[in-house]
From TrEMBL:
It comes from Melaminivora suipulveris. It is found in: Cytoplasm. This is Iron-sulfur cluster repair di-iron protein. Residues 86-223 form the Hemerythrin-like domain. InterPro entries: Hemerythrin-like, RIC_family. Keywords: Cytoplasm, Iron, Metal-binding. NCBIfam families: FeS_repair_RIC (TIGR03652), PRK10992.1 (NF008221). One of its GO terms (cellular component) is cytoplasm. GO terms for molecular function: metal ion binding.
């Protein structure tokens, strides 16, 4: 596939695990599985934390480094099939990984910090609803629409594309709701590492989802529908 790629940097083992948890979406799931305390014990370095648990530091660094999202942009001459492959691997699969961990962290923050003025009450439920809607949406694309477009499209493609565009607008409205619940994903002063990691992960999700929608609405879909149907993407998804 023709693309501009930036190779992700290797995670620094001298960095505090709490800082890694906040700055690298997805790291919290790795730390939980390895039983590394990134919240209360987040001040120790990754190297020290791995040594205390007798973990293979190189393997942990490699796993964390793989979580970093390379910046990628489809290049000129990218075919619809190549673009679809990029969308599925870079966005669909990433969303499937992102949301369960974000839901888990949101439930924890809401439970532990219940009663605090800035707690994002209702966030976990909103994320669960988004997760269900995205899973359904992506399944429809992968099972029906994308195979049709990869084969060159046909006269019936405009109808499912219209449905996907409408669902994209719904996803944009869901993102706006999450932004309101989280004060634009800015953690309050004194927020714990889990709270900060949650908001960092939400910001990454929002960026990924907006870029995902942009590629479909503005690059892929217009190749298979009348020009009039592409006017007015709408602003709810953040494309404009």
């Amino acid at each position: 596939m023709n693309a501009i790629l930036t190779v992700p940097a290797t995670v620094d083992p001298a960095q505090a695990i709490g800082q890694i948890a906040v700055e690298l979406p997805g790291a919290t799931a790795v730390f939980r599985r390895l039983k590394l305390d990134f919240c209360c014990g987040g001040q120790v370095s990754l190297r020290q934390a791995a040594a205390e648990k007798a973990l293979d530091l190189d393997a942990v660094v490699q796993e964390l480094s793989a979580l970093q999202r390379p910046a990628s942009l489809p290049g000129a001459g990218t075919t619809p099939a190549e673009l679809i492959g990029h969308i599925v691997s870079r966005y669909h699969e990433v969303h499937r990984q992102q949301l369960p961990e974000l839901i888990r962290m949101a439930r924890r923050v809401e439970a532990v910090h219940r009663g605090k003025p800035h707690v994002p009450a209702g966030l976990a439920d909103a994320l669960e609803a988004m997760h269900e809607e995205l899973l359904s949406h992506m399944h429809k694309e992968e099972a029906i629409l994308f195979p049709m477009l990869a084969r060159g499209g046909n006269s019936f493609a405009a109808q499912p594309i219209g449905v996907m565009r409408a669902e994209h607008t719904d996803h944009g409205e869901a993102l706006a709701h999450i932004a309101r619940l989280t004060t634009d994903m800015v953690p309050p002063p004194g927020a714990c590492n889990t709270w900060r990691a949650l908001y960092s992960g939400l910001a990454q999700l929002a960026d990924d989802l907006v870029n995902h929608i942009h590629l479909e609405n503005n690059v892929l879909f217009p190749q298979f529908e009348p020009a009039a149907a592409t006017e007015g993407c709408g602003t709810a998804c953040g494309c404009s």
